[in-house]
Write a structure and sequence with these properties.
It is built from seven helices and 17 strands. By secondary structure, the chain is α/β, with parallel strands linked by helices. The strands form four sheets. Strands 1, 2, 3, 4, 5, 6 and 17 form a seven-stranded mixed sheet that branches. Strands 8-15-9-10-11 form a five-stranded parallel sheet, covered by helices on one side. Bound molecules: NADPH dihydro-nicotinamide-adenine-dinucleotide phosphate. The site of NADPH dihydro-nicotinamide-adenine-dinucleotide phosphate (NDP) has 15 residues, from helix 5.
């Protein structure tokens, strides 16, 4: 097996920032890009809230910039996906889908999270053209417009409340006849005059010429009074949960009930010596690129200290 001092898994803002720091610290990091090179930011419309880009930047361009910055410090970037690991003892072992096998003294897990989608082909068709899974990222583009949010949990209520501050009208599409969200979030949504909750509704498709112009909805699906109708909207936001990409690490590191990797206190340590987690895979709360980058930096500094303290 190939031996490395620092192995970074994932190529979003957390992974690349960890790469920049560990590269500059001469740890000769090796980074595996994973399934979605550049991470979730490459699928958002435009990034306007990442400091340093006063005119905004496309997510793809920003990730290209950060990648090039990492390459400047000699980071070895490889395109493959980790399929299995053994974190029972150091050096930690990893297997990749291209056949690579790597032993690492330190590991920084930055595999991110993926928003869940309904599975409609129209979600792909209108990706970046009216379909979004992040209100904080894309809500700004819907000022004074009409949007719909799908979901009945805390995220959906939070996103609907956030969007109500920008949009002229927000529909909340809920498949059951109640909200699963906490009482306080429910109250916030139900008392907001800009939000209309559509209980017992499902989305069957989207329509529009050059972007989303509306959704095909069905009310009380499967019941005798099942009704189909079209709802004109400019934006369609998914808020039906995120899935942290932590499956291969679960046998070794502690996760919460959803699968987010737990880190110790204010550190990025997983509790396994020399194994750190950064970015969305360990962040159920903020899920922002800038926060991911910051945590990637912290994990890198901690990895560097760990190697120095253990003379590795
Ligand atoms: P949840 O799993 O809590 O809720 C998902 C929602 O999406 C549910 O209403 C669910 O409906 C709905 N849903 C799932 N699949 C579909 C589908 N295929 N079609 C239509 N609707 C669907 O996810 P959240 O992201 O909202 O929250 C995750 C966790 O994070 C929770 O524990 C939550 O409490 C927490 N959180 C807390 C916040 C806070 O405290 N401020 C903010 C955000 C999240 P159904 O109810 O029918 O299953």
């Amino acid at each position: 097996m190939e031996k490395v001092r620092c192995l970074i898994i994932g190529s979003g803002p957390a992974g690349y920032t960890a790469a920049i720091y560990t590269g500059r610290a001469n740890l000769a990091p090796v980074l595996y890009e994973g399934i979605q090179p550049g991470g979730q930011l490459t699928i958002t419309t435009e990034v306007e809230n990442f400091p340093g880009y006063p005119d905004g930047v496309s997510g793809t361009d920003m990730m290209d910039d950060i990648r090039r910055q990492a390459e400047r410090f000699g980071v070895d970037i490889r395109s493959a996906v980790a399929t299995k690991c053994d974190l029972s003892e150091r050096p930690y072992k990893f297997w990749f889908d291209n056949g690579d096998e790597v032993e690492a003294e330190t590991v920084i897990i930055c595999t991110g999270a993926s928003a869940k989608y309904l599975g409609l082909s129209d979600e792909t068709k209108y990706a970046g053209m009216g379909v979004s899974a992040c209100a904080t990222c894309d809500g700004f583009f819907y000022r004074k417009k009409v949007v719909a949010v799908v979901g009945g949990g805390d995220t959906a209520c939070e996103e609907a409340s956030y969007l109500a501050g920008l949009a002229s009208k927000v529909y909340l599409i809920v498949r059951k006849n109640y909200l699963r969200a906490s009482k306080i979030m429910q109250e916030r949504v139900l008392t907001n005059p800009k939000i209309e909750v559509l209980f017992e509704h499902n989305t069957e498709g989207l329509y529009g010429e050059d972007g989303v112009e509306g959704a095909h909805l069905v009310k009380r699906k499967g019941e005798a009074d099942e009704t189909h109708y079209d709802l004109p909207i400019d934006g369609f936001f998914l808020a039906i949960g995120h899935k942290p990409n932590s499956d291969i690490f679960k046998p070794w590191v502690e996760t919460d009930e959803i699968g987010y990797i737990k880190v110790k206190g204010a550190s990025q340590s997983t509790g396994i010596p020399g194994v750190f987690a950064a970015g969305d895979v360990a962040d159920p709360t903020y899920r922002q690129g800038i926060v991911a980058a910051g945590s990637g930096c912290k994990a890198a500094i901690e990895a560097e200290r760990y190697l120095a303290e253990n003379k590795l």
